Amino acid sequence: MAYIITLTATPEYYPVSAHSAATVTVTATVVNEHGNPADHVDVAFSSPQFRFEPPTPVATNHGGKAVKHFNYPLGGVITITAALHHGPSATVSVFAYSPELKQVRITNAPHNHINQHSINAGIQAEVPAPIRIVTGELFEFHWGDATRQRFIQSEIDGLPYGVPWVLNLKTQFAPETVLKDGCYRVYYAVFDQVGNVSICKPKEITVTGSNYSKLLAPVLLPASLHNKIDREAARHGVTIRIPAQPEIKAGNSYRINLNITPGADSQEPAETRHIHSGTVVATNADINFNITYSSGLLEGLDNVTGEFVYDIAPAGGGRISYSLPLVTRIDTVGPRLSTDELTEESARDLTEEFTDAEAQEPAQDE
Q: Which of 284, 352, 278, 347 is nearest to 315 (CA)?
């Protein structure tokens, strides 16, 4: 039976203290393909930062939940993974931050919210200088999954420099990775020369209404087609793949369309063909749909430009996200004869017709 697993941590952020260690509760929730809680399913918890004790799996209760508790007195980002045996897994991050480190300063983000007007005005992030910095320390800036690093160096007079450190989001990162719609954790980490790490308390930055909010383009398989579908490829069948990406989650609905633009010398109108619709079964997994010859979805396309696109709608309603297009050349009709070739072929057909007719006439006596 297929399962879906999600993972949460409480608290997600806590200050590192020399006097006490916070207790973090991680809860894995397992449901079946119908969305019902899965009872008595073993969940294994793991982390690269420490070993869970006892290390044995935890069985889900009647609500589909398995729970673990842990203490981690050191600073940094703690990554916890919950996995099913030969099944899916989920990961959550917990931030043990150092209260003495100031948070990242971000321009044009009132109430930690960024829209397209803010992006047009420019987004800068400043990593502030701590009270004390030492030559050789490494500062690592995080905006979601995007990172940059900077070493603290010494000038001629021996004074360390490198922070404050200002980063321009639109020039120092690919904007479509840091400024498309979504929620981003923004923070920095400081590594000393012996490997100890301290992090600031993250900020949750939300981006909405961004022009960069496009899902990845679908992919045409097999790759040997090089985005061209001819009559032979259509006869064997092709596959349209929606790549796995963080914006696509289990329970979302998806729809694949083909926008058709005829050639300049074609008299056919442009049209849109609905290819497939469905529900996302698993987070972080590709979605593949096979277009077979018998489906007729590619029938009658004579040397046209086709754009495969898809959209994703969250479960329960909400903002629909649209993909970038996969541009293809499609010709499932095959080559057509030129005017001269048509004339020659018609003449041959006419000659063959008279020859056949003469052969069938009975011989007459002289």
A: 278
Q: pLDDT tens digits, the chain, 366 residues: what are they? A: 678 899 999 999 999 987 778 899 999 999 987 789 999 999 999 999 999 988 899 999 999 999 999 999 899 999 999 999 988 899 999 999 999 999 999 999 999 999 999 999 999 999 999 988 889 999 999 999 999 999 999 876 778 889 999 999 999 999 888 998 888 999 999 999 898 999 999 999 999 888 887 889 999 999 999 999 999 999 999 999 999 998 898 889 999 999 999 877 766 678 999 999 999 988 889 999 999 999 999 999 988 999 999 999 888 776 788 898 999 999 998 765 554 544 555 455 555 544 555 555 554 443
Pick from 324, 315, 176, 326: which is nearest to 254 by CA? 315
Yes or no: say if 94 and 77 are a contact pair by the CB < 8 Å rule: yes
DSSP per-residue codes, 43-103: EEEE-SS---SS-S-EE--TTSEEEEEEE--S-EEEEEEEEETTS-EEEEEEEEE-TTSPP
Distance (Å, whole) CA 202 – CA 97: 8
| C-beta separation of 155 from 143 below 8 A | no
